[in-house]
Amino acid sequence: MRAKHSWVWGASIALWLVAGCGFGTVIADLSQNSVHPPTLMVAAPIPRALYVVMTPDNVADAFQIRHSGHSVTSFRSFWGDTLRNTLRPYFTSVEIVSEPPPPSVGPCMIADVRVDGVEARDLPIGSLVYTTLYVQWAFAVRASESTEYVFSYAGNGVSDHAYGSLGEGFEQMTLSAMNGFMQRWTEDDVFSALRAASMQTAGGETDITP
Questions:
Q1: In sequence order, what are the residues at sequence separation of 6 or more whose Cβ sits closer than 8 angstroms to the Cβ of residue 196?
Q2: CA 188 from centroid of its chain's CA atoms
Q3: Which terminal residue of the chain has fewer beta carbons within 10 Å of its beta carbon, N or C?
């Protein structure tokens, strides 16, 4: 956060720190941060493993926040752990991988993920200007036997206007992104669509894999 007028400089110091920006350049290591979004209860998971593919080209591990001098590291594992926590109830297992699994793993679900980066956005409130964090990202999932996605999503997430550290701001932003994702997941009844897809093999026969 920064003050618009020099006369509020003294009062703005504490608020600047609350807003998570601080002074100088901040490099936040997200390896100690985590997000646990609320999930739906399901009677039984889809009888397949989910492999979430996050390539270095689609999800950077370290980068500078656009329109800001600050940057983060360990982002890929942070985002991957969040997706694993979000989707774990719906599949027999959720694995975060850097490339698609080989055919030898058998029938499974494969999700492709892209994060288009994070940017800082000014949020004027009265005589002060806070900085929010904004992310755009995409997720699409298919059965391993198919090239067509069962569900495709593109959305965003935004932090609160105030946070105690840059890492906390990323937690708020990511929670916002996952809440929007799960809203679409519920509205589109993606769980049922994926369960139906999991019961079909490449030849159209029922998959009885336990």
A1: none
A2: 19
A3: C
- Report the run of H or E that residue 76 belongs to, with start and end: helix 75-87
Compare 159 and 123 and report the one with higher pLDDT. 159
Q: Is 81 helix (H, G, I), strand (E, B) or coil?
A: helix
β-pairing verdict for 71-73 and 27-29: parallel
Rounded Cα gap, residues 79 and 158, in angstroms = 14
If you search the block for the tokens 């569900």, which residue do you land on?
151
What is the arrangement of strands in the sheet containing 27-29, beginning at the earlier edge strand?
27-29, 71-73, 63-64
In whole angstroms, give the CA distance from residue 15 to residue 13: 5
Question: Using one digit for the tens of pLDDT, what is the confidence trace for 37-78?
Answer: 888 889 999 999 999 999 999 999 999 999 999 999 999 999
**Per residue in 197-208, is it b (16+ CB within 10 Å) or e — as a string?**
bbbeeeeeeebe
Q: Which residues pair with 51 in a beta bridge?
A: 95, 110
Q: Model-level pTM greater than 0.90?
A: no
* pLDDT beyond 80 at 100: yes
Structure tokens belonging to residue 183: 């809203």
Q: Which of 69, 123, 111 is nearest to 86 (CA)?
A: 111
**Residue 207 bridge partners (DSSP):** none
What is the rounded distance in angstroms from the CA atom of residue 184 to the CA atom of residue 194? Answer: 14
